[in-house]
């Protein structure tokens, strides 16, 4: 999210990038479960393997949101069609390996934004509606937040 809404109670969005990490992510999920805290995990496609798929499945099952992340800025420079296919392919891999669809959130490498990248993500519907057999999580409304007024 580039801008936060200016209404309602103060909210913190807890996010974790660059996963899944086989050593750290399970411990982090344990802490979040113990503290009853929800978060959003932005995953790098090349980190998702048959070995890490159970970790991602647990992330979904524990009620966290999952979005896509990139290991390189180069993705933001791809032609719009290639950019969209790359994200859709990554989302499909997550679903095939875990049985769950990620939300429609993408965090570029190092938070890098460009006018071209923003226009690509706005001009293309990602993921395409037919890309998944299960309905996608609520579009980023599922991004987990923590109420800071309690």
Polypeptide structure, described:
By secondary structure, the chain is α/β, with parallel strands linked by helices. The protein has a single domain, classed as Alpha-Beta Barrel (TIM Barrel). The protein is 33% helix and 15% strand. The protein has helices at residues 24-35, 53-61, 80-98, 115-123; strands spanning 11-13, 15-19, 40-44, 65-69, 106-107, 145-147. It starts with 10 loop residues before the first strand and ends with a strand.
What's the quick description here?
This protein has 150 residues and is an alpha/beta fold.
Annotation, overall tally of beta strands: 6
How many domains? The number is 1
Mean pLDDT: 75
List the helices and strands in order. Answer: EEHEHEHEHE
Largest β sheet strand count, sense and barrel closure: 4 strands, parallel
Fraction of helical residues: 25-40%
Low-confidence stretches: 120-142, 144-150
N-to-C CA distance: 23 Å
Strand order of the largest sheet: 2-3-4-5
CATH topology: TIM Barrel
What is the level-2 CATH architecture name? Alpha-Beta Barrel
Rg from C-alpha positions?
A: 15 Å
The coarse overall form would be: globular
Features:
6 strands; 150 residues; 4 helices; TIM Barrel; alpha/beta; 4-stranded parallel beta sheet; 33% helix; two-stranded antiparallel sheet
How do the strands and helices of this protein lay out in sequence?
Elements: E1 11-13, E2 15-19, H1 24-35, E3 40-44, H2 53-61, E4 65-69, H3 80-98, E5 106-107, H4 115-123, E6 145-147
Parallel strand pairs: 2-3, 3-4, 4-5
Antiparallel strand pairs: 1-6
């Amino acid at each position: 999210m580039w801008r936060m809404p200016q209404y309602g109670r103060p909210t913190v969005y807890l996010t974790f990038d660059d996963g899944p990490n086989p050593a750290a992510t399970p411990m982090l999920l344990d802490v979040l479960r113990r503290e009853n805290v929800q978060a959003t995990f932005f995953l790098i496609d090349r980190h998702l393997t048959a070995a890490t798929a159970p970790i991602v499945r647990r992330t979904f099952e524990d009620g966290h949101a999952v979005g896509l992340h990139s290991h390189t800025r180069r993705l933001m420079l791809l032609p719009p069609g290639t950019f969209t296919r790359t994200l859709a392919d990554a989302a499909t891999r997550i679903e095939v390996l875990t049985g769950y669809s990620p939300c429609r959130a993408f965090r570029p490498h190092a938070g890098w934004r460009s006018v071209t990248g923003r226009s690509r993500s706005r001009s293309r519907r990602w993921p395409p509606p037919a890309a998944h057999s299960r309905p996608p999580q609520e579009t980023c409304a599922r991004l987990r937040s923590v109420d800071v007024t309690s």
